[in-house]
Amino acid sequence: MRKYVLLGTAAFAIAVYLTNASWLAEKRPGKPTLIAHRGVYQTYNRENLGRDDCTAIRVYQPQHQYLENTLASMQAAFDAGADIVELDVHSTTDGEFAVFHDWTLDCRTEGSGVTREHAMSYLKTLDIGYGYTADGGQTFPFRGKGVGLMPTLEEVYRNFPGKNFLINIKGGHVKEAKKLDRYLRERELLSGPLMAYGNEKTRVTLRELRPDAWLFSRDSVKQCTYRYLILGWSGYVPEACRNGAVIAPNTWHWALWGWPDRFIQRMEDAGSMVMVLDFRARSPGGMHGIYKPEQIDFLPADYRGALWVEKIETVGPYANTKFTSEATESL
Prior knowledge:
The protein is α/β, with parallel strands linked by helices. It has one domain: Alpha-Beta Barrel (TIM Barrel). The protein is built from nine helices and ten strands. Strands 1, 2, 3, 4, 5, 6, 7, 8, 9 and 10 form a ten-stranded mixed beta sheet that branches. It is globular, with a radius of gyration of 22 Å. Pfam families: GDPD. This is Glycerophosphodiester phosphodiesterase family protein.
């Protein structure tokens, strides 16, 4: 009896191995998709950062002139190799969608109050560089340089025809998702499927309105990851992993069944994009985008998933060289 148990266990282990063997997966062409978080922006110190803390007063000494979520920063991101630029939107009282990260105006601008409780006509008068300081308030290097630079979502799409954007819907209400859907349709701003994320309510609502959309939420990503870790050995792709984002922390890849080729192939077949992030156990939130080129050195030359990038101006050119040269050398 023990002999049969051992043989059965061995056969099961072999079957699981072959089911998830990356080297047996189909080799598909492609290159990594670079997602530039906020475009090119002023990065900041995350040490002891609270969820609602102002980040404009924590920026490092500026190394470039770009401010997040502006047309200039988006252009710079595309120039650096971004395939998709992530941006943040708030509905406004006059029917627009303002492209701006913060829930309130107090941190970055001279204005005050909740962003979505103002009209776009007013938001256009603000200086979005007003609050930035790298030395505790002694100097404000961008003050006076950001007046009128907060764009509308329509301006973004009109200025970058054919480019791809990932929209972060800051408002968590179902009506916000419906309003965004109408806004995009009435102004005919999309040439392809919508790419967006927000809370679970907005994700579900947009999925009903746009079945072909690429959508995710914090909840869907968590459900996808945990369920795949439990069931992925069988080749099963959980529903939460379909038509959205699948997070692959750079220190967790060993635990993702079929990593890299088989795993990516499964998610692509399910309509999803694998996104590599940086995992830092002692950092606020645990996971963030890629800041340094060396953080992607663990990826194989033929990796074709996505990279969530914080400093596209340095990571973009490095990734282009790495994956182009290494892929050529492996031929």
